[in-house]
Design a protein that fits this description.
21 strands; Beta-Lactamase; Diguanylate cyclase; Rev_trsase/Diguanyl_cyclase; 4 domains; 6-stranded antiparallel sheet; Nucleotide_cyclase; GGDEF_dom; alpha+beta
Length: 563
Amino acid sequence: MSDVPLPADWYESHVMGAADPLWQWDVHSDRIVLSPEAANLLQGGAGNGYRGECGAFCDGLAEDRQESVRQLFGSLRRSSFDSAMEILQTVGEDIICCRAIVLERFSCGTPRLLVGALTRLDGRGWLHETGAEGRWVYDCAREEYTLDRNCARLLRLPDSVGLRLPRQTIRDMLGADAARFFSSRFSRLLNARDHDGSFVERVLLHLPDGSRKNFLVSGTLVGHDDSGQPVYVTGNLVQRGGEEPQEALSSKSCEISLMALFGSGDGLWDWNMETNTIYYSPRYTAMLGYDRSTFGNTFESWRDKLHPDERPAILKRQMDIIMSPRYGDSYEHSFRMRKADGTYCWILSRARVLRRNAHGRATRLIGLHTDITTTQGERDRLAEMIEYDPLTDVHSLVYFHNELDRLDMQPDKVVSIISCDVNGLKLINDYLGHDTGNSMLQTAARLLRSSLRSTDCVARLGGGEFAVLLPRCNLRDAARVLEKIRAVFRHYNEHSGNVPVIMSFGLSGAEEAPSLREALALADRRMLHEKHGSRLVSGHAIKAWIEKRKDCVVSLEESRYDG
């Protein structure tokens, strides 16, 4: 791989000339580039590829495909956690699997530049392989699933008609990252954020007999009560043939194309654990001041150059993902690596599991290293940029995840987590402008910090989402901290005269989950439950404030104002 700088439009040229269904999307300019095969999959017919605005591309689709393709790109734009993701979407009569890698982010954490590949899945073919399709119904009020006999059999559960299971039982069958993503998708469905009121996802479930199976799960929202609350979701469960998880890329040629695409501007590494060899690209070794003769193709070549302060946490996070999919299939971390001249540079590392064996252990990983150091004299400033959110001056998403992993390594850890989300932020942005919305986020961050100890960690995870880490704080004490936070927000809203800053909260502790990442997912679920129950009250409070001071009529009819 050459180290000569590539032209700015190299990505576009590569995508347009690819035989595989590749795409690139610059969210900031809304410019999207689709290879001919990718355009064919989304259009449902022959095409010559596409370069132009994403919105214009969607407008030109057939009516039965427009909304679902917009929904697909909306899901990509909202994602803020993973450096790599996989989303399934019904488009017309097709099921499209969209795989994406985030190359650049906005300061708020949401993707700015993405590249990826598309695949058409044949749900009917999967059904034909197994000859069985399970049916399920979810009672929103009881948070309870009812399964038919086929569904119970597929999940290796007792063979009975109308088997009932609490929501947590199904979540326990998912790994941590999958549970977090599926919960977010399910919550958007319940909050009517999915325009067609339905979803299709492929999931890997850990069954009671110890096996792991791939399933295609679909769901549709089928009713609301008089107050507008969702009542039931019903759907199907279909097992995909084979016990081993699907490879992350659909074909060898597509995999090679993506490796070339992703590795062009950064240092690429590719770890084959079956042969215990790692390929480091020339750009990878050059950014550290080495060449191939002085940088071996072994795991130790990377490990031994990690900064001693960060090495234990980084190695643990990577080994967790390698050993089990319950910790997810991707990660993103920043750390320091020793260069050939003895100095250290800051590296942003993004990695993705490409394959696992039948026991769930990763057999191949691929990743990117980006040198995020500018000059030696700016290192402290760069570290501060990595650790802090520039808008709110609380900690960043990257820092929060690093701190979460560090605390998770401690024996007998006593840690509590509060998940927080600002209600009505979209309403404020639309009617009062983004400057007011940003001011609202800054106020929320200030109020959160005023209620906490200096040893606690407040971070902005993206958009209006915040999280609080409370080390050496059990659940009982954390509940008192949360009540103090609520009191601070109530006092501000009653006496400031400014736009109300209303937050939803969810609390969890290390004693409730096997890992802190799973405790965070639990706190997120509890926060979303509170947000769903309070959205009408908070929406009307903000609506009244805007109408009183701005002499305008505010509509809450649009589904995007549900949060």
